[in-house]
Structures are given as C-alpha cells and as structure tokens.
C-alpha cells in the first residue's frame, strides 16, 4: 500500500479512506469483486482516480486495507484474554457479533462472491494468517501437545469452518453451539498442564 498506515491519518485521509471503504462495500453488495473497477469505486466515493492512487496501488490493495480494518476491530478486545483457547473463543465470538450486526451486507456480498472466487479466498487467507500470528504470539502456545504452528493452523481452520457453516452455508448455529463445536474439534490439542 502506498499510504503509510503507521502514522495517524489526517481528517482528510480519514474521510477519503472511509469513502473508499464504503464504495467497495456498496459495490460488493451488487456484484463480484472481479467485476468491480477502480473507476467505479472512485465514482461511488466521489473521488478522482488520482486520489485513489495516492492511497492504493489497485483494488486489491483497497480490499486488503478493508480486511485490516475489520481485523483490527475484531481482534482489539481479544489481545488480553490470556490463553490461546480463550483468545480463539473471543475472536470467534467477535466474528459472530460482527457478522450478525452486518448480516444483510454479509449475505449480499456472499450472494455475489462465490466461495471459489478471489474475495472469499482472500478473506479465508487473511483471517487464517492473522489468527495464526495471534496464536503464535500467545504465551501459552508452546504448551500444546502438537507443534505450535500445527495447533495454530488447526484452531484457525476450525473457526473458519464454523463461520462458513453458519454464514456461507446458512446453517443454524448459535454462538454457544459454535463454542461447543470449537471445543470438541480441538480437544485433542489442548495445552498440557
């Protein structure tokens, strides 16, 4: 990404980034990611193309920024929850809450972007890589019965399976059921005492 997201954004940058996020969200509710053009995003955001390119190299960059923003929102209260197990439970709960609060938008986006298309594959990859990173940085992750990286991948994949089951496949699953499913599916890798 061209824009330096490590520094505090100006009011103008904040507005521009928000406008572009809203533009891509609106476009994704109407069509697949592959069908969206930078020109269309600029038109929806009412910004010149030059402004878009001051912040992002292309629409893929903007999508990654959107993923980063959502992940930051989902992971913020999970950092201090203690064990890997508790952090993964908290992260899954946050995902449930976020998706439930944005269910109409999520359903529209999923309707236009099939599981084998770029958007859903990138979402899976982004979530997985960030969950693995969070897991590895947790102090008790070395105590698992299987290698740390394998345990992180398993936890992450199970959370994604549960989220896809409920939101992509539209199956009935409460948060309590999801926590139970997570516990059952990863019970063999629990940390040693």
Q: Which SSEs are present, and which pair or pack?
A:
Elements lengths: L10 H18 L9 H8 L3 H7 L3 H17 L8 H18 L1 H10 L5 H19 L11 H21 L6 H12 L7
Helix pairs in contact: 1-2, 4-7, 5-8, 5-9, 7-8, 8-9
Overview of this protein structure:
- The chain has 193 residues and is an all-alpha fold.
- The chain folds into 2 domains: 11-59, Arc Repressor Mutant, subunit A; 79-189, Orthogonal Bundle (Tetracycline Repressor, domain 2).
- Helix content is 67%, strand content 0%.
- It contains 9 helices and no strands.
- Helix 4 packs across helix 7 (118-136) and helix 5 packs parallel to helix 8 (148-168).
- The termini are far apart.
Task: Please tag this protein with its features.
single chain, 193 residues, mainly alpha, Arc Repressor Mutant, subunit A, Tetracycline Repressor, domain 2, 2 domains, globular
